[in-house]
Specification:
Elements lengths: L5 E4 L8 H15 L6 H4 L7 H11 L6 H19 L11 H10 L3 E5 L5 H7 L8 E3 L12 H10 L6 E5 L2 H9 L3 E5 L2 H4 L4 E3 L7 H5 L2
Parallel strand pairs: 1-2, 1-4, 2-3, 4-5, 5-6
Bound molecules: 6-O-phosphono-alpha-D-glucopyranose and magnesium ion.
């Protein structure tokens, strides 16, 4: 049994399916550059910062660009992505999310967002969840991207908690690694084949019980 005091949620692909929008925008960029980019290749981008994602994408297309061009390309991708997310509404919150967040709060367990995204604030606004969380760590608050544990360590710190009392919820391989590097247990959201390092793997947040989490 763990003494569960805090839960830190990745945003993209855990609370909302923005991972889909990231993929569509990256694939569009790849297509413009003359190559295709599969969903399988996209797994490596999940949880990874914008510029690091671009580097992985360019390597997949065997393309080299200088820093100035890279900034332009990342901006193009982000503009398409922002077009998607500014049209989001609360119906896009993934199944079980609100229910679990409210249950945790009711139990006095603190909740935080731990995202690599600089768009996390916009997304939380669009889906109406700003203010529900005790802390929000986003792409502006961290300098080292997942799998570095900085985002989750900052989350625990802002909640005023010891990392061993926190559980992370992640859909990205890099995120599961970051959670473990922070000394936290991790619930993987998605496919077993991608997330086998997580302590438990579920398709979404629906049906997760606090009792189950305390047993981790
Ligand atoms: C999240 C997503 C990544 C994305 C990163 C940066 O971690 O999983 O796919 O690249 O955030 O997002 P941003 O919105 O700042 O480009
Ligand atoms: Mg994610």
């Amino acid at each position: 049994m763990m003494d569960l005091k805090g839960c830190i949620f990745d945003l993209d692909g855990v609370i909302v399916d923005t991972a889909r929008y990231h993929y569509l925008a990256w694939r569009r960029l790849a297509n413009e550059l003359g190559f295709d980019f599969s969903e399988e290749q996209n797994e490596a981008l999940k949880g990874v910062s914008r510029m690091a994602s671009l580097d992985i994408l360019l390597a997949a297309g065997n393309i080299e660009k200088d820093d100035e061009e890279k900034i332009l390309l990342a901006t193009r991708k982000n503009n398409w992505y922002v077009d998607y997310i500014t049209q989001m509404n609360p119906s896009e919150i993934l199944p079980g999310s609100i229910d679990l967040l409210l249950k945790l709060r009711k139990e006095g367990i603190l909740i935080a967002v731990g995202s690599a995204s600089k768009n996390a604030g916009v997304i939380l606004d669009r889906i109406g969840l700003t203010g529900l969380f005790d802390a929000v760590i986003d792409g502006y608050s961290v300098t080292r991207a997942k799998p570095n544990p900085e985002v989750f360590l900052k989350g625990a710190e802002q909640l005023g908690l010891n990392p061993v009392n926190c559980i992370v919820f992640e859909d990205a391989v890099a995120g599961v690694k970051a959670a473990h590097a922070a000394g936290m247990k991790c619930v993987g959201i998605g496919e077993q084949e991608n997330l086998s390092e997580a302590e438990i793997i579920v398709p979404n947040l629906a049906g997760i019980t606090i009792e189950q989490l305390r047993k981790l």
